[in-house]
Amino acid sequence: MATEGDASDVSLRTPSAAVRGTEAVVVGGGIGGLAAAASLAADGADVTVLEQQDRLGGAANLIERDGFRFDTGPSWYLMPGTFERFFAQFDRKPSDYYDLTRLDPHYRVFWKDGDRVDVTDDLRQVRDVFDSYEDGAGDALDDYLDDAAEAYELGLGRFVYTDRSRLRDFVDWDVVKSGRALPMLQSMDCYVKEYVEHRKLRQLLEYTLVFLGGSPYNTPALYSMLSHADLNLGVYYPEGGLYAVVEALRDLGTELGVEFRTDTPVTGIDHASAGTRTSGGADPDGNNTAGSDNSPFGTRFDVTTADGTVTADTVVSNLNPAVAEQELLPSGLRRHDDDYWERSTLAPSAYMLYLGVEGSVEPLEHHTLVLPTDWDAHFEAIFDEPAWPDDPAYYVSVPSRTDDTVAPDDHEAVVVLVPVAPGLDDGPAARDRYRETVLADLADYTGVDLRDRIVVEEDACVQEFSDRLGAPGGSALGLAHTLDQTGPLRPGHRGGAPGLYFTGGYTTPGIGVPMTLLSGSQTADAVRTDAETDRILPASVPLPL
Predict the structure, then answer these.
(1) Among 52-66, 193-207, 214-228, where is mean pLDDT lowest?
(2) For the chain, which end, N or C, has fewer CB atoms within 10 Å of the first or last residue's CB respectively?
(3) Which of 56, 46, 69, 57 lies closest to 404 in space, CA to CA?
């Protein structure tokens, strides 16, 4: 089984004289913000995290009720090497904070024509599945995964582990000249068709795009690297759920001296009323003079909250940049105009059901996909003609199949996620109708009827993502990974003024827990670089959409 490289080549984060003592405020306690906070603290900054909700985590949050524990956001733990690399910066390991289980099967798929397959941890079994649907497809899978591994190394090397904020930095001319770049720019569906023709096999290789907020028809083939992450590197589960990662980042930050303030919504960010840089800006030991007018970036910022104003040398926003720029920042601090955000392609929202269920839910697995044999209509209902999907493709998570701490005895914790278009009218009547549609569909095509066994129930949809996260259109994921919103074409980490930064899934490298984790680390790297060089490097300038 293929594995990721270890984290032995990762350098420890050590305090920087240019950063030490800098007062930094991180707005938003999602995974990107928590990662940035820990990284800045390790660099020597005095860091405060301001979070509007009563619990850290942002989109990756938690519902606890009557003995049940539900992750409200991400539920897949992929790319374990990325987590190892992140924690290695602090001379720590993920296992210092949570235990991991490698899932087998990775997931189960129910097709609505009656077919059912398990994608297991044994690639030989997966090869056999492919051969059972199409002659020679097992060999084609081997070729595809070899190329996906190459795409993975290319992707991680060019814009994941290293922050490539400019297009010319992203382009590897050796790759371009070899001809390997162009196939990566076509749509995922066109690319996969070069290996296998059977629709069900293409679905098995394309379903991960939902986690990027895209479809097989608008996401570039570069993201075939997710097939490598899934089929070669494995699917994992942290005990307690994905919120265990949030708790780990909180604990790491606490160990490094980060101050966390929850129930503290931010209502504005602006230049402080005073604070021009004077000569020097350092104490006799060469450290930045915190709390003075000698910010490493020349000016300071006032971050306004309901409880008062916090003044900082550096501000990192983990809010989505669209909301931050349009609602919190004055025009002089914005990097993008309103037209840029209006032209952008939003990722889907999601209709979510969080269900505490009495009794067994077999044959559902920890991860289960329920798919129509033709899912085009569902993607059209998201991206082309927004509507509630009549024949939904959806995902079911049952973490209690692996972890007995997330549900009481003889009960199961079940989460159902249906991707839907952002901006839908999701009032009570619409939700009631769709709840019946989804639960009936689940009973019809998996044989698992939950309707008379539900003892705990919560839901979420467009309105919650809009209200709780401030997401435009109630998107559950932010900006889709379309070709013109990939890599350096996504919003960069540097904001519209020296000392102002962005992090999180809206920025580079993109959507997903590993990516937002790295985004936070990269944002801190940008702060450190700018402070140490006494200049501001060019931020990425997104090309027209």
Answers:
(1) 214-228
(2) N
(3) 69
Contact 314, 501 (CB under 8 A): yes
Rounded to the nearest integer, the mean pLDDT of the chain is: 88
Q: Would you tell me how many other CB atoms lie within 10 Å of the CB of residue 308?
A: 8
Task: Render pLDDT for 270-295 as a digit per residue (tens, 0 to 9).
Answer: 998 754 333 333 343 444 444 445 57
> What's the full length of the chain, in residues?
545
Total H helices, total E strands in the chain = 17, 19
Per-residue pLDDT reduced to its tens digit, 128-181: 999 999 999 999 999 999 999 988 887 665 656 565 555 444 455 444 444 455
**Of 152, 127, 121, whose CA–CA distance to 141 is shortest?**
127
Cβ 421 vs Cβ 465: under 8 Å? no
Residue 370 and residue 109: Cα distance in Å, rounded?
A: 6
Q: How many CB atoms lie within 10 A of CB 169?
A: 15
C-alpha span between 524 and 314 (Å, rounded) = 10
Residue among 320, 315, 282 at smallest CA distance from 299: 315
- Tokens 């952008």, residue located: 344
Which residues make beta-bridge pairs with 77? 236
97 and 240 in contact (C-beta within 8 Å)? no
Contact 392/377 with Cβ under 8 angstroms? no
**Number of other residues whose CB lies within 10 A of the CB of residue 184:** 22
C-alpha count within 13 angstroms, C-beta hemisphere, residue 228:
23
Domains in the chain, start-ordered, CATH in brackets?
A: 23-98+242-344+479-533 (3.50.50.60), 102-237+348-472 (3.90.660.50)
Determine the Cα–Cα distance for residues 205 and 182; give it in Å rounded to an integer: 20
Residue with tokens 């374990």: 80
